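From the shared-data thread, chain only:
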Amino acid sequence: MDLQQLRFLVTVSKTLNFSKAAEELYISQPTLSHQIRRLEDELGVRLLERSTRNVELTAVGRQCVNLAEQIVELSDQIIQVTQDESRRFAKRLNIGVLAVYPQLNISSVITEFTALHLNETINIRFDWSAKLMERLLQKKTDVIISNVDIDGLENAVREQLEIHPFIADCLYLIVSENNPLAAQETVTLEQVLGQRLFMPGRTSSANMFLVKAVTSAGYQLPDFVECQSIMNAFNFVSTGSGASVLSGHVSESYMRPGMKKLRIVPEIATYTAVITRKELLKRPLVNEFIRFFLERQE
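Structure, as tokens:
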């Protein structure tokens, strides 16, 4: 049992809906269900009663949620106290960057900014979009450069954030030239789901955008082959073992001879943005970094 699982349980208890809870937590529904099952298995009790239409807390589930809420609240307070204390004595900027972006020279912009602020402490963390957003909302990171589902954000979450999109893109199916679909310029969602898909991680933004499109269209989620990196996924694609899905600008950095990208229609839009919490806009270093970064993107 860990704090993340307790946070998941509390969120599900508030929504009594796994899909809504997964959206709020920025994880996929299968991941959320798996973590709740692991928690139940470890505790040896059923916390939730599930049916095709309803989710309800069991009697012991309600007791556990009451205690879990206290634990999560205390954990958040500890994080807040320690972060406030550390920032009082040092100028620090914690930047989160989507794992694939070093391929797009964003790292060089951050390095240039760091060189101009040698008296400040600037930390960089690379991760997938869902993890970056989670860390931002938990006040573990000050600014993130990440893909974001702007339309899919809960209102309560959206109101907390200052979002500056700088890339508008869409999802593509990546195939080898030997794939029968390679003769086309576009593919339908049905054709995508007919492929054996190699995806770069279940918490990657491409995966999350695709899952949302699939569920919204009423299709059953396919079993993806989860790879540790885009490079691994594309290795399988290049051998004709299957296909992958990625945004256009990211895929360009990994494409190789013998591969082709096909735009998915209807279009599955993606957005890349620099994001912070509105409460941090009063910090000069945060504002300066956002301005500096966006000017370099122009």
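The domain at 3-85 is CATH 1.10.10.10 (Arc Repressor Mutant, subunit A).
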